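Final report, Chapter 2: Outcomes

The project's central promise was a pipeline that accepts a single protein chain and returns its three-dimensional structure in a standardized token representation, suitable for archiving and comparison. That pipeline is now operational. To close this chapter, we reproduce one record exactly as it appears in the project archive, with the input sequence first and the structure output second.
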Amino acid sequence: MKNLFAIIILLGVLINHVKASELKIHAINVGWGQSVLIEGTNGKTILFDSGLSSKRQVVIDYLHQQNIQQLDYFLLSHNHADHGGSAQYIVREFKPKQSYYSGASKNADRVFMKNWFNSYQELNINPPIGIPLGYVIDLGDGATATAIAVNGEIENKAAVVAQLQKTDPNYEYPNATHINDSSIVILIKYKGFDYIVSGDLGGHSHNGQKDFETPVMMSALLSGNNNVYTTNGGIDILHTGHHGSKTSSNSKYLDLAKPEIAIVSVGPNQSHGLPNKEAIEDILIKKGIKVLQTDEGKLSDERTNTSGFVVGHIKISTNGESYTITSDETGLDTIKQNVIGESAKAGLPLTSNVDNAVIVPPTEDLAPEINAYLSSDLVFNAALSDDKLLLSAEIFVDQKIVKSYIFSDETHYQVNYLIDKKIFTSGEHSVFIKVVDSANHSTNSANFTFDIGPVIPPSVTTYYEVENNDAIESANNVADDINKIIGYFPYTNDDNDWYEVSLVAGETLNLVLTGPMDYNQDYDLYLYSEGATLLKYSEQEGIAEQLSYKNTNSAKTKTLHILVYRYSGYSSKKPYKLTMSRL
């Protein structure tokens, strides 16, 4: 009996070991949009995009079903709401340890992006930063997730251009002017398994987009970096760009990639004819690539493809030598097609061997490698890697340790350290990082210098009151960049001045009122909602008043009305001053 118990325990250990050595990729059905969950063999989790705000609960519930309580990484492919509209809610629910986006400035001022950044500030956790090109996330057992394209840039650009000019002498590398082409592209590798996912990266010159797919794939083929390199056997699974749009999945790209399976994140809640017949039927399916859709497209649009298999949530599990695809048809947005049961028609669950074996070169006993740079906003970035486990790292500023790291099971790590200008005197300073691995090899990065200039107070943008604004209906509209209002009560019967301002979700408005010191005046300060409900007030005796108000709504920008009221005193030709700050 003891032997039987021992066998049962051993089997349990083996089963857990097998499960732990699997890499999992989930294409979550969020309708029109995209959300992909990646689970490493080491338990590390990455959420790549989160879909529209209206689909936030779908993603939250799905992650909880996978027993995820906190995300290790949250990546936003590019600044579009169908990829990150629900991002703020994901942050509040799963408090990611590190978050990245493309770093593009276009659309960064959209409400959903502001709400996303504000959610980190509210929780006091690491905010999103631009992901460095070539950044590697260690997924355990040699598995990696690598940013092979960021904001229109790739590795080995010169070599890629030279290679493409062999067949097209006039080829020039494109400029990323469309926000879609700023998308992050991630290559997942595990032994012989390869999977690529992007946001809305272009594959054709159409509607302002350019063909970035072809040079991205060529870069992967030419790269000497084993985390990026893809052999001529191609990749196993392609997550198509831009929801199967006609701007994506060009023929040359697919000939280089050679995928067996194409996944399309799509839904009927759009008016763009997605997924497009030209991309799905005329290119992917004609090349013998099996197309799996998370949902159906808008069937009333004649541009929409109906040849893909609509299978709902899609899960890929791989041990690096073979992979298995399963699906969950619950949660499909609409059932205008006879889609229930299409998983079986697609041959799911499907198990396939990977297309090629990766030959891993013999490893040398190397010291840690550091790829470091200092950004203009004084963020010290260092990509650490080693053929062994990393042990520790220390950041030095002016030869003094300012930050220490102790690693557990990482062979790759990205350091992002914001240098606080407030704690340094003006003048020149220096920063570098020292890294030690498990074999006690150490490496120092290059020494980067930076200057701290004298503290300059923020510029003041002033708004001057415009009469007649003595009623809420005629309130002066004050722009968001205004931080000082100058107003007057020059007449005895002029006792009310109204101003209208906006306050984005999660932001706090601070108001400080100072009146003139003549004629025994007494001022009061009031803050009202858009519907004229009193929110806050200050009725101190005298000319000085102040109040603060936070917009606790997680998504909505509020319109507010400020009332400056002269409670008593005579008219004056001297102004009152109302200063405003938003935090």
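Archive annotation: The CA atoms of residues 325 and 350 lie 5 Å apart.
This record, like all others produced under the grant, will remain available to the consortium after the project formally closes.
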